[in-house]
Design brief:
Length: 391
């Protein structure tokens, strides 16, 4: 199946020899039985590439520990490349340290030489400036204290199900001088939510689809309200936050999303108007970046400090305006942002001075960067730290 791609690579190299570099990333396993790194898989893969006319210029060895001098020499010898073109890519506690490690080994200079590129700083920013990146890595490495965040959800059988959320939390915490300890709560019918959250500093209610674990997730939002634990609900998590509020403060027993219960007496979350005629499910959601109009004086405005922002969406269902009654408003419920038409509610929150509770239909984690965390995640972590220190 890969043969057509390999042939395309060969022709590209032939047609533009001085503008093309082949970098082969390969696994270097460690044999505990003999106590050494093994180069055989790399030797085999390089010979296969050479057999179809491809010669790697650089080999990056992915390994648990840094490549030792002997393994570099062996790979160099069998792969027909200089020893300095064998680059180590070991496991790192802080993944952002990897560009610095590559720079120490001269990878940038090698690539520039291979493709005849005159390297220069084209613009000054946290991304392009080496010293700024060094400072950022130091910030992550020097974080000592820990903030503990509960993440009630249902996809934790796969470790990176919520990877963008995990990273956004880490980015925000590092900018406060903290590390994150994420408590993944895989909810089932036996989960005692009160016990699970009693030792956490914040709750992030995760996105998702389908009815499994929903009651436990709603209970998590109710517990956050009762114990005034900082809370952030993302997408589905925001919808269940609204269901929890309606049940707890408006007396709407069994309030739910029609995605979960089509016969709920209180459909507080329902399909977007544009989704009623949709029969094919693939690629038909409200998807991608949209303008968001923020209400001043809200927790969301405090985070972003501007009235119009752009964030990314992925949903079919949304919070129903008709359930946001005067009673709801009197009990502290706030719609903090809408779309440009004002028809779609993009975020909600509770207006309480002693409790930070926000839900967003959008996914702010998608725009988080290690050098510039999401403003909303930044403020969420700030409140979690404040809550931790108040105990």
């Amino acid at each position: 199946e890969s043969s057509i791609f390999l042939e395309a690579f060969r022709q590209i190299k032939l047609d533009s020899h001085n503008q093309t570099a082949f970098i082969h990333v390969t696994l270097i396993p460690y044999s505990r039985a003999v106590g050494q790194q093994k180069s055989k898989p790399t030797q085999h893969s390089v010979k296969m590439l050479q057999s179809v006319g491809l010669q790697p210029d650089i080999i990056i060895g992915r390994s648990e520990t840094p490549l030792d001098k002997e393994i570099k020499r062996k790979i160099s010898s069998y792969s027909n490349i200089p020893e300095n073109a064998v680059i180590s890519n070991p496991d790192l506690e802080i993944v952002y340290e990897l560009p610095l490690l590559f720079e120490e080994q001269g990878l940038g200079d090698l690539i520039c030489e291979l493709i005849d590129l005159k390297a220069k700083l084209v613009s000054y920013s946290e991304v392009t400036n080496y010293s700024e990146w060094v400072k950022m890595v130091g910030m992550f490495k020097n974080a000592k204290e820990t903030v503990r965040i509960a993440m009630p959800g249902k996809y934790f059988n796969i470790s990176d199900s919520y990877i963008s959320i995990n990273v956004a939390l880490e980015d925000a915490a590092a900018h406060h001088g903290y590390k994150t300890e994420l408590k993944m709560i895989n909810i089932d019918e036996n989960t005692n939510i009160e016990d699970e959250i009693k030792d956490v500093d914040g709750i992030l209610l995760t996105p998702g689809f389908g009815e499994r674990a929903v009651e436990g997730m709603i209970k998590s939002a109710e517990c956050a309200m009762e114990h005034k634990i900082p809370f952030l609900g993302i997408c589905f998590g925001a919808q269940l936050f609204f269901a929890a509020f309606c049940r707890k403060y408006l007396g709407l027993k069994n309030a739910n999303s029609t995605e979960i219960d089509k016969n709920t007496p209180y459909p507080v979350v329902d399909l977007l108007e544009s989704q009623y005629q949709v029969n094919e499910k693939g690629g038909t959601m409200r998807l991608g970046a949209e303008n968001i109009i923020i209400e001043e004086g809200t927790k969301l405005y405090e985070a972003y400090n501007q009235q119009v922002i752009i964030e990314r969406f992925r949903h079919r269902y949304h919070i129903q305006e008709r359930f946001i009654t005067e009673e709801a408003k009197n009990k502290g419920f706030v719609v903090s942002s809408r779309d440009q038409s004002s028809k779609i509610i993009n975020s909600i929150e509770l207006n309480r001075k002693d409790h930070w509770m926000v839900g967003t239909q959008f996914h702010p984690e998608f725009k988080s960067r290690p050098y510039k965390p999401s403003p909303l995640y930044y403020n969420f972590i700030k409140e979690c730290i404040k809550f931790k220190n108040s105990k």
